[in-house]
Design brief:
The protein has 2 helices and 6 strands, in the order E-E-E-E-H-H-E-E. The protein is an alpha+beta fold.
């Protein structure tokens, strides 16, 4: 890659692949101002494509264990499609997706989780920022519920 030039890639699409959300069975018996704390969320990052391909895909997923006793359970997955710009190729889309993709597209996953859970009885769940360089591709993270004022 020539570091004096722009990367020559573009985001072709960011799509919601799937979203599932549920409340715990007794959610209506719990006060609506109950804060959700220490929710264990699993994160997955997968990259599709091969070096030299003009297109690569980054898939990010955040989900809770279905058998957990938390007030919310969810499973949200997004995909970001990255392509090279014809005539401006510089950074390989697969290398971008593999190296920077999870960190670059995590805010879109965070927004999807927040948007879905915002419709729940206990307010939105905002996934904490993650240092993707310091963790393996899959990890457990604690998240804090930030209530809309």
């Amino acid at each position: 890659m020539d570091t004096t030039k722009q990367p020559g890639i573009q985001i072709a699409q960011i799509i919601l692949l799937g979203a599932q959300f549920a409340h715990r069975e007794d959610a209506l018996a719990v006060p609506p101002n109950t804060l959700i704390a220490n929710l264990e969320v699993q994160l997955e990052a997968k990259v599709g494509g091969q070096p030299g391909d003009p297109t690569a895909v980054v898939r990010l997923r955040a989900f809770t264990a279905k058998d957990s006793n938390f007030l919310y359970t969810f499973d949200v997955e997004i995909a970001a499609i990255v392509t090279s710009v014809p005539g401006e190729e510089n950074l390989d889309p697969f290398e971008y997706a593999r190296g920077m993709g999870p960190a670059a597209f995590f805010p879109f996953l965070r927004e999807a989780v927040a948007s879905l859970t915002m419709k729940g009885r206990f307010g939105a769940i905002w996934l904490k920022p993650i240092n993707f360089l310091a963790v393996p591709q899959q990890q457990t993270a604690e998240v804090a519920a930030l209530r809309e004022g």
